[in-house]
Amino acid sequence: MSNLKILVVEDEEAIREMLVMVLEQANLTVIAVGSAEQARESLADNMVDLIILDWMLPGISGVELARRLKNEPGYKELPIILLTARGEEEDKIRGLEIGADDYVTKPFSPKELIARIKAVMRRSGKLSESGLLSVGDLTLDAEQHKLTIAGRSLEVSPTEFRLMQFFMTNPDKVYSRTHLLDQVWGRSVYIEERTVDVHIRRLRKILAEYGREELIQTVRGFGYRFSMAH
């Protein structure tokens, strides 16, 4: 799971620090903030794979932030685990009804939390049992930073690797250049949109050597799509 980035939103400093320690020990990259407003700022500047969100936050509550994020196209697919001291069944149901992907009740063991994260990431398609992403005979190994077609390694740059990782995690969906820049390069980095075209061309050239350049399709007027169907 070392390629995954987690956003922790928890207003109690001691719990926040404990969560950071537990997640970093599991080789996860962690961003930790104390409010919904700070979470919004972090999401504007960082691409994260999952949010661990405390139910009770000052100002905008965690459950309200989760509800809002799940109603926004850009964050609808972003997995959220709600963290709370509430154990009542109706609260758990309410959390899941607004779109949260799981629910962990305090106190919890570090092992339980990591197991829940792995389960949610597997369900979202961002983590397989073996840590591998496979689409047809194309396989991406995030741990080893390897991309292969039918067992043959492809020589790609770190940026092209991240681009393929994003495409393979989100197949058959059309993404604009702006969205790809946000997701692969990060919103805090200013790069021209044509940079996306340059990397797409390089990837297609590499895939063409294996007769697979059609995997990345241009959707005129919209952007690009990764698909095994042509």
TrEMBL record:
Residue intervals of the Response regulatory domain: 5-121
GO biological process entries: phosphate ion transport; regulation of DNA-templated transcription
Keyword check for Lipid biosynthesis: no
Keywords of this entry: Activator, Cytoplasm, DNA-binding, Phosphate transport, Phosphoprotein, Transcription, Transcription regulation, Transport, Two-component regulatory system
An annotated GO cellular component: protein-DNA complex
GO molecular function terms listed in the Swiss-Prot or TrEMBL record: phosphorelay response regulator activity; transcription cis-regulatory region binding
InterPro entries membership: CheY-like_superfamily, OmpR/PhoB-type_DNA-bd, Sig_transdc_resp-reg_PhoB, Sig_transdc_resp-reg_receiver, WalR-like, WH-like_DNA-bd_sf
Phosphoprotein keyword on record: yes
Segments of the chain annotated as binding DNA: 130-228
Domain OmpR/PhoB-type: 130-228
Record localization: Cytoplasm
Residues where 4-aspartylphosphate is found: D54
Pfam families given in the database record: Response_reg, Trans_reg_C
Functional note: This protein is a positive regulator for the phosphate regulon. Transcription of this operon is positively regulated by PhoB and PhoR when phosphate is limited.
NCBIfam families: PhoB
UniProt-recorded name of the protein: Phosphate regulon transcriptional regulatory protein PhoB
Native source organism of the sequence: Methylomonas methanica
